[in-house]
Inverse folding.
């Protein structure tokens, strides 16, 4: 069944496999069987990512053929191969901004593909990704554009160019997430990386040394990059290249986000600890000053007692001398 990711992320003419859950030869599949899903997409009116809810779905061709009978509603249109279904969505927050999708039914109703959408698909690069891409942001946008239009060869070429140019910097930044023996082994491999010019060879040298924090559920993004880049472009179709282009893009974005997020987390932790330690240091200094003040006050009291005793003693001596003179 079509899900949110299909409508939110899939490019035009990119096939999506799904199952209506019933045999179309025995039971007619109608537009009602097409499930309603909510989307999380950008709303220009709200200037935020918002939930979009389905307001209407209809089969253009079938609805033209339906004869509305008095007192009897028409049956829901049956879906067939190559039918076009329109999906209308509205922002659930402001209820003003709309999004529209045109979906084409595939062979045997086992696949669907987007053949149109409005507003047109746009490319937004996350700040963390833009930070490391720097001058390659335009290549990334062109790669995403090719990916959206199912131009796999073009998307693969753009993403490979980005990886080849920034992989060295990315591999260097991973050292900040390691320590001890793990870091020592990685640094040894990194020395060889610095002597190598080919991206696939650089990745091959360190892909098995990636820290666990960058391998969610044992998926190794460096291995994915290496495998995809190793295939190259020669003699491959747009469809074949598109799959690897998606793998490259997904792995690259994950690595950049994970590395920068960890660094940001470490920096935040360090800054927090510095504030705590500074607060503790000031408290110690304050306590020491208060202690010093108490010591000074105690010394002053002792001096006063000694002075009073001395004064008292002198007074007694003077009285004794006066008594003797008498």
């Amino acid at each position: 069944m079509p899900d949110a990711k299909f409508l939110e992320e899939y490019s035009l003419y990119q096939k999506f496999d799904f199952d209506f859950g019933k045999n179309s030869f025995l039971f007619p599949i109608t537009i009602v069987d097409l499930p309603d899903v909510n989307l999380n997409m950008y709303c220009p009116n709200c200037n935020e990512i918002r939930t979009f809810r389905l307001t209407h779905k209809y089969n253009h061709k079938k609805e033209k053929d339906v004869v509305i009978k008095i007192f009897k509603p028409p049956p829901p249109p049956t879906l067939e191969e190559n039918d076009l279904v329109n999906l209308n969505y509205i922002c659930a927050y402001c209820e003003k901004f709309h999004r529209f999708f045109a979906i084409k039914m595939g062979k045997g109703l086992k696949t669907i593909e987007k053949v149109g959408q409005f507003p047109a698909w746009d490319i937004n690069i996350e700040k963390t990704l833009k930070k490391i891409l720097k001058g390659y942001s335009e290549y990334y946008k062109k790669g995403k554009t090719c990916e959206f239009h199912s131009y796999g060869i073009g998307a693969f070429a753009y993403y490979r160019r980005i990886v080849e140019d920034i992989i060295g910097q990315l591999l260097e930044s991973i050292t900040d997430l390691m320590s001890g023996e793990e870091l020592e082994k990685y640094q040894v491999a990194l020395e060889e990386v610095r002597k190598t010019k080919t991206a696939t060879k650089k990745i091959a040298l360190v892909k098995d040394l990636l820290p666990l924090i960058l391998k969610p559920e044992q998926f190794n993004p460096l291995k994915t990059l290496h495998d995809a880049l190793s295939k190259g472009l020669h003699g491959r179709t747009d469809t074949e290249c598109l799959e690897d282009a998606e793998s490259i893009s997904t792995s690259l974005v994950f690595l950049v986000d994970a590395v920068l997020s960890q660094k940001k987390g470490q920096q935040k932790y360090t800054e927090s600890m510095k504030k705590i330690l500074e607060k503790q240091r000031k408290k110690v200094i304050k306590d020491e000053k208060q202690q010093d003040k108490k010591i000074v006050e105690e010394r002053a009291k002792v001096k006063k007692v000694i002075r009073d005793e001395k004064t008292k003693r002198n007074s007694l001596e003077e009285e004794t001398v006066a008594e003797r003179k008498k």
Remarks:
- Residues 64-71 have pLDDT under 50 and may be disordered.
- The longest strand covers residues 48-59.
- The radius of gyration is 37 Å.
